[in-house]
């Protein structure tokens, strides 16, 4: 049985953090595709994608490929923008999931971890970001309850907060992190009866070995330009979150009975 796997999503789904010697990205979806004896694999993910980009920019191409498995991981970029609106994200994810499953695909989704801990954010920023990520998880819970499929719950695994599983930017998984995610999906697919020939190795190999020089090059070539592009939105977003958190604390203090 040849498995048609199509990946939709953002930079993590693209494979960023798991570079190959030829300069391309592999990532967990590519590693997962390699676990099947035969497969047809297409990665439609785009760095920086948000839920409307997937629905309106990636979904049509995915449906043309008639996938057996459709990886749908997107939404974290939405939570890190000043215009984050759970109702809008829910609508885009629900419509995308409905179209994919309606075409016969089995969904691959995930519940996201508290990435504020990975970033090492102070509580003033970490708490509001985590609340947004929890709102995203609630949407994915609804998607999973309605459309089923295979889901990895990253809130229930301890390895997600280990530094070795993250690239130098602490935003994208490292090769090991991608391998762990691919392994988690492969175990569930195997247990569900999919023809998984061999689980992905949890030993980092075959990619581009991380070195201080490679990390420095990444920061100069990719990291700094990325930060510059996002600063116009992320800085106001961070300031807004911090302000709202301070206001929330003040209101809670006002409601608390005097000691």
UniProtKB/TrEMBL annotation:
* Source taxon at top rank: Bacteria
* Chain ranges of the SGNH hydrolase-type esterase domain: 7-180
Q: Which PANTHER family match?
A: GDSL-LIKE LIPASE/ACYLHYDROLASE, PUTATIVE (AFU_ORTHOLOGUE AFUA_2G00820)-RELATED, GDSL-LIKE LIPASE_ACYLHYDROLASE, PUTATIVE (AFU_ORTHOLOGUE AFUA_2G00820)-RELATED
Q: What is this protein called?
A: Lysophospholipase L1
- Which species is the source of this protein? Jiangella alkaliphila
């Amino acid at each position: 049985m040849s498995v048609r796997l199509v990946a939709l999503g953002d930079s993590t789904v693209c494979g960023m953090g798991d570079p190959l010697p030829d300069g391309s990205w592999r990532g967990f979806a590519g590693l997962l595709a390699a676990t099947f004896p035969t497969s047809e694999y297409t990665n439609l993910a785009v760095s920086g994608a948000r839920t409307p980009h997937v629905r309106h920019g990636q979904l049509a191409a995915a449906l043309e490929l008639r996938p057996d498995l459709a990886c749908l991981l997107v939404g974290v970029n939405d939570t890190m923008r000043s215009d984050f609106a759970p109702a809008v994200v829910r609508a885009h994810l629900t419509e995308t999931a409905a179209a994919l499953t309606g075409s016969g695909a089995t969904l691959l989704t995930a519940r996201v971890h508290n990435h504020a801990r990975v970033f090492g954010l102070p509580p003033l920023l970490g708490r509001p970001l985590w609340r947004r990520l929890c709102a995203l998880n609630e949407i994915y819970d609804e998607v999973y309850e309605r459309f089923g499929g295979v889901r990895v719950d990253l809130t229930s695994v301890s390895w997600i907060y280990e530094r070795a599983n993250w690239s130098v930017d602490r935003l994208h998984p490292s090769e090991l992190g991608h391998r762990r995610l691919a392994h988690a999906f492969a175990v569930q697919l195997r247990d569900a009866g999919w023809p998984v020939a061999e689980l992905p190795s949890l030993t980092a190999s075959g990619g581009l070995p991380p070195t201080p020089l490679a990390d420095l090059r990444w920061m100069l070539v990719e990291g700094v330009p990325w930060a510059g592009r996002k600063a116009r939105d992320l800085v106001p977003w961070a300031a807004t979150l911090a302000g709202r958190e301070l206001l929330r604390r003040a209101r809670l203090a006002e409601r608390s009975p005097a000691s």
